[in-house]
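As described in the Methods, two query proteins were run sequentially through the folding procedure within a single session, without resetting any intermediate state between them. The first query and its resulting structure tokens are shown here.
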Amino acid sequence: MKSEHYTQAERELLMQKVQMQMSQKRFEHVLGVEKTAVALAEKYGASPVKASIAALTHDYAKERSDEEFRLVIRRDGFDLDLLNWNNAIWHGLVGADFVQRELEIDLDAAVPYETKHTLLHLIETEAVIYPKTIETYNFWVAKYRRELP
């Protein structure tokens, strides 16, 4: 799915696919995030379409089973150190793989933005940071430095 060809019908289809992967409560959260993301994009001159897609997919894998995550980590060649962590880490890193594979969405432009905000949140809440998160941030910042909000 390319954001420049995102129609209302494609948004509806994406919403249906996302809704099938989560509880009603989580889906309502996702819709709230989308509304806020689109409003902020419009206010600050970013793409409302990209904001919509990112918001709708941000928790796509949040409610997947631990067993499914472990299977994908082993099967798809992820760093096996991930097995020492949990869904809080998996749903972001491995979840991107689900979004790309199952929904066929190009996530490259969203990774640096989301990684930056994840790190800020983890630091603010004094949470333990998965070391690869910092490596991911450094890689994508170098690649997309001028585009990071």
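Immediately afterward, the second query was submitted; its sequence and tokens are:
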Amino acid sequence: MGHISAGGPDNGRERDAKAARSGREETKEERADRQWTELLQELRVAQTGVQILFGFLLAVVFQPRFAELSTTDRNIYVVTVMLGSATAAALIGPVSYHRLLTGRRMKPQTVTWASHLTKLGLGLLFCTMCSVLLLIMRVALHNALALWLVGAMALWFMACWFLFPLWAIARGPKRGNGSRSPGDGDSGQAG
């Protein structure tokens, strides 16, 4: 009952104090595994949407009405397809990182790199969505209202994807008070 661990009587208290500060009692590798699983769940949502959107974009060029598009609309289409391609590459890239680095004892670094690539992919997805909306609104409306609608939707995307999370970070607990682990949150850092 009164067993003292080999590390001495304070070893347990030190571990408990560390866990209380970090909010979790996990090793660097365990944290990386958890963060990788969380990142994969996030990527599944984003990748599905990107793949559907990209498939739609690829099919547009083969529609009979495509030939009727103005030069400006065709240019917007080309930019949109390129953005969609870059988005797909960035959001599928973490899978390649993981596959090529598996077994090399680099999970924390893989999580960090994949997190950065995912953030880049989300920024590209924002641009792709705005570009797709611009193309669709120009074809549908043929007037300046298209720009206003796309601008309003771009602000909404920006608020939902970036401003609300940043607002939550600003209003949430600070890292210095022991309520969050350095590897938790949106940073994707594994340590």
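The radius of gyration is 23 Å. We note this only descriptively and draw no conclusion about the first query from it.
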